[in-house]
Amino acid sequence: MSGRLNGKVALVTGGAGGCGLAASELFAAEGARVGIVDLPSSDGSRIAHALREAGHDVVFAAADVSDAAQVAAAVASVEEAFGPITVLMNHAGILCAKPFLDTTEEDWDRIMAVNVKSMFLVTKAVLPGMLAAGGGSIVCTSSISAVVGTPMEVLYCTSKGATHMFARAIAVEYRDRGIRSNAICPGFIATAHGLREIDTLGKYGVDVTEAAIAAAQGRLCRPEEIAAAALFLASDDASFVNGAHLFADNAYTAL
């Protein structure tokens, strides 16, 4: 590894599974001190221990990122361990795949809380320290579903559209204070989250067969490919990339 995040403190929400885990591991390998924030029921504690055993500086802070008090405590825990956070990856997210008329107000509230409110809460908690440290990078995990309407996913698409504009608006407001904010937009991914989405959509009659995915994006994306894209946005290599939407979808949205 080339130490592209040497001297940086990174916080990854949803950092104990899927692409979040891949990012936590890669950021640590690239020299960052990493705070993994995930649910108490996640593997976060075990993962952090394993990464420390491998020689990295990693802590786990359990939190439901849709809860303001838990977010504040988690961010404070990471800052106490490592100092101000200079890389934030707002990755935590959930799915809601069902016919729109079958969705409920509870479905809406939960997906907006985890996918959108969490970004507001975590970013607001992290920004004061990031500004005091002289700047930093925020990466928000969006999706192709922010710009491509997908059947049975009206709520999910709406939440990712909000992610798109959150990342862009933060970039505009804080550009002149040393903050970069960008969104990364994956296609279908070979994670438990992604495979569950494919399985659910298939049960509702959406064509997400292997052949259909191959036609749309060639193959399933690997979590480490999303982590590598996030590393670029987090690192100084992307020093003039701000307010951008980086699509990691192998031309899905270009067809």
Tell me the Rg in angstroms: 17 Å
Would you report the number of β strands? Answer: 7
Which structural class is indicated by helix and strand composition? alpha/beta
**Structural shape:** globular
Seen as an oligomer or otherwise, the chain set is single chain
Number of domains: 1
Q: Which class in CATH terms?
A: Alpha Beta
Which ranges are low-confidence, i.e. pLDDT below 50, for 5 or more consecutive residues?
A: none
Number of helices: 8
Name of the CATH superfamily: NAD(P)-binding Rossmann-like Domain
Which H/E pattern describes the elements? EHEHEHEHEHEHHHE
Question: What is the CATH-assigned architecture?
Answer: 3-Layer(aba) Sandwich
Write a short abstract of this structure.
By secondary structure, the protein is α/β, with parallel strands linked by helices. It has helices at 18-29, 44-53, 68-82, 105-132, 154-174, 192-203, 210-217, 223-234; strands at residues 9-13, 33-38, 58-62, 87-90, 136-141, 179-186, 245-248.
